[in-house]
Amino acid sequence: MKNLSRNFFLHLSENKLLNRSAKKWGLKLGASKVVAGTTIEAAIPAISQLNHEGLKVTLDHLGEFVTERNEAEEAARACVHTLQTIQSAGVDSQVSVKLTKLGLDIDENLCMENMHHIMQAAAANGNFINIDMEDYSRYDTTLNIVEELRRTYDNVGTVLQSYLYRGLEDLDRFKGVPLRLVKGAYKESPEVAMQDKEAIDANFLRMIQKHLLNGSYTAIATHDHQIIAQIKTFVHENDIPYDRFEFQMLYGFRADMQKQLAEEGYTFRTYVPFGNDWYGYFMRRLAERPQNVAFAVRGLVSK
């Protein structure tokens, strides 16, 4: 039943008709509890509050699967505007981007041009860009683009997913690169991705431990308190300094634990999405945990 529910919401996340309709609804269906606003200006108060509580932020201007050149160029300009707004507002936030929003599916050269504009703006504003990983069909291209950008910029990293069989192997390719490590949120073929939760969790831990022992900066993105506890033990046993890693969780989830980890002295970063293209992101959050469905229903009936 759990896998059926997960597959159902993952299928909905890819429905382009529902995605277009969702932009007209506004932040309905509980999305306002996990999306900080439809504009960067609307999201700034939420970022300021998180900073006040001792939490750093990474901002994601929601949107993916852009098919028009002008949309991709507009997305790049919006990202530059986000970087400038972060700087002028004086908040502590990095920026996460999706390459499909920047034209990857249209023209790889267009996507790279847009990324260079963003990276130059990030460097000018003293900021860091994290390139989110998308589904497996775009995996190798994403990694190639990250490698190309790293030849010019050191303020860029990406995401590796532990449900992929090759996840552990790809860590060697990115030794020394700041990485966000996650379990994975897309529906992937059993040919490329593990389907068993215990196997995914075990690989997640191995990947985290390997990247930490390599001396590479590691963002550990999970809401799993058991894995967090195991990482706490591991860093203490291996004398890994706190400035070599951070914990990350999503905006709107486990807020008490986020603050607790920050109070314990760990670097903590909240992944804060904003924008009116929220539908796909929200459906994947519903797919990840059955509890999120009840969370969404409560958000709807409390309107």
Would you give an account of this structure?
The protein is α/β, with parallel strands linked by helices and 303 residues long. The protein has a single domain, classed as TIM Barrel (Alpha-Beta Barrel), CATH 3.20.20. 50% of the residues lie in helices and 14% in strands. The protein has helices spanning 2-13, 16-25, 40-52, 69-89, 108-124, 139-150, 167-173, 197-213, 225-237, 255-263, 279-288, 291-301, and strands spanning 56-61, 93-97, 129-131, 156-161, 179-182, 218-221, 245-250, 268-274. An eight-stranded parallel barrel has the order 1-2-3-4-5-6-7-8, surrounded by seven helices. Strand 4 (156-161), helix 7 and strand 5 (179-182) form a beta-alpha-beta unit. Helix 4 packs parallel to helix 5 and helix 8 (197-213) packs parallel to helix 9. The radius of gyration is 18 Å and the shape is globular.
What top-tier CATH class fits best? Alpha Beta
What number of domains? 1
CATH fold type? TIM Barrel
- Which architecture name does CATH use? Alpha-Beta Barrel
Q: Show unreliable segments.
A: 295-303
Percent helix range: 40-55%
Q: Give the biggest beta sheet.
A: 8 strands, parallel, barrel
Mean pLDDT: 88
Proportion of strand residues: 5-15%
Order of helices and strands: HHHEHEHEHEHEHEHEHEHH
**What structural class do you assign from the helix and strand content?**
alpha/beta
Output the number of helix runs: 12
- The protein's oligomeric status is single chain
Count of strand segments: 8
Rounded Rg? 18 Å
**Shape, principal axes of CA atoms:** globular
Strands ordered across the widest β-sheet: 1-2-3-4-5-6-7-8
